[in-house]
Amino acid sequence: MAAIKLKNISTRAPKAYDKEATKIKTEKILQELDELQNLLFAEGKHAVLVVIQGMDASGKDGTIRNVFGQLNPQGVTVKSFKVPTPEELSHDFLWRVHMAAPAKGSIQIFNRSHYEDILVTRVHKWCDDETAKKRMRAINNLESLLAEHNNTHILKFYLHVSPEAQQERLNERIHDPAKMWKYNEKDFEEARHWNTYMKMYEDCFAHCNAVPWHIVPADQNWYKEHVIATALHSTLKQLNMQYPGLKK
């Protein structure tokens, strides 16, 4: 991948995209994804790992609900990586991640992921640069392992939200009763580290790119969902999956 500079990438949809027309296209894609996921599950030869990263209020939860919510829950699971437990801390940092990797026939979504261990940890200086480089190599090796030894297709999305849109959404959590449950005072504190986060994300993109990153403009939910649904649809379509015949 060429060096990514987030400040040079728009957080909004290209002007050529019409909102209502794009939403109609997305709905058609989601309908086709339902059948493709059924094929994935029935054939049982491939696994799919979807990594969703982004700043607070970039729309990770909404993306999972609106893009993957129409799929059969029997074949889709979501894992959110929180602060490590004492047991998890007693192992290597990828131990808990490997255990959550998808089985063949399934789609596993990581709502935040192993990349937090080279992002938030570096922003707050819990992890020095030397350790971060070692972790990046380990991440690359894990992703290669999943791809080469379990036929796992990995999609990595960074939800590229603007600081203005982020602040607007965080403030909505204070005033909108339907969103107050999301409020966390620490989100505003983290937002003050914006520039450092951008630097760490760019370093992540530069050194963990064997599986390419999708930088998804995230200020407009309809476009963000269209980009992610389209990428997943393209990946599954290219697998040329077939339903197995009658068992003998």
Question: Could you please describe the fold and organization of this structure?
Answer:
This protein is an alpha/beta fold and 248 residues long. The protein is 48% helix and 13% strand. It is built from 10 helices and 5 strands; from the N terminus they run αβαβααβααβαααβα. It has a 5-stranded parallel sheet with strand order 2-3-1-4-5. α1 packs parallel to α10 and α2 packs across α10. It is globular, with a radius of gyration of 18 Å. The relative contact order is 0.22.
Structure described in brief:
The chain is of the alpha/beta class and 248 residues long. The protein is built from ten helices and five strands, in the order H-E-H-E-H-H-E-H-H-E-H-H-H-E-H.
Succession of helices and strands: HEHEHHEHHEHHHEH
Helix content: 40-55%
The helix tally amounts to 10
Taking the sheet with the most strands, its summary is:
5 strands, parallel
Give the low-confidence spans. none
Describe the global form.
globular
Strand-helix topology:
Layout: H1 19-43, E1 47-54, H2 60-68, E2 76-80, H3 86-89, H4 95-99, E3 107-111, H5 120-123, H6 129-150, E4 152-160, H7 163-175, H8 185-191, H9 194-207, E5 213-217, H10 221-237
Parallel strand pairs: 1-3, 1-4, 2-3, 4-5
Features:
5-stranded parallel sheet, single chain, 248 residues, alpha/beta, globular
